[in-house]
């Protein structure tokens, strides 16, 4: 009986007992690199969107005109005499 080997244990037959089929290490690294690149793209787009919104909020309604400012003169338009008793019209 010197050459007798001990009986081997039966291989597990249930999915829980079988060794999980793990992908090789380089495939996991590729997946991580792809996930990081996608995350960086989304963060960059989000940052650009925030910068655009802040810029538009701060510059809301501000614009430059290159026209000459109207000359402020004290020339008043002569008005009719309001004491004449005529009917007055008011435009609202």
From TrEMBL:
Listed transmembrane segments: 32-57
Region (Disordered) residue spans: 1-22
Alphabetic keyword roster: Cell membrane, Cytoplasmic vesicle, Membrane, Transmembrane, Transmembrane helix
Membrane topology: Single-pass type III membrane protein
The organism's place on the tree of life at top rank: Eukaryota
Location in or out of the cell: Cell membrane; Cytoplasmic vesicle membrane
One Gene Ontology cellular component annotation held by this UniProt entry: plasma membrane
Family: Belongs to the SMAGP family.
Protein name as catalogued: Small cell adhesion glycoprotein
Origin organism lineage: Eukaryota, Metazoa, Chordata, Craniata, Vertebrata
């Amino acid at each position: 009986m010197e050459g007798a080997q001990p009986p081997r244990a039966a291989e597990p037959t249930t999915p829980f007992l079988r060794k999980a089929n793990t992908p090789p290490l380089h495939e996991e690294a590729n997946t991580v690199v792809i996930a990081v690149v996608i995350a960086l793209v989304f963060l960059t787009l989000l940052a650009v969107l925030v910068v655009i919104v802040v810029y538009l909020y701060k510059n809301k309604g501000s614009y430059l005109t290159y026209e000459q400012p109207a000359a402020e003169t004290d020339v008043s338009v002569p008005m009719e005499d309001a004491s004449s008793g005529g009917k007055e019209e008011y435009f609202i």
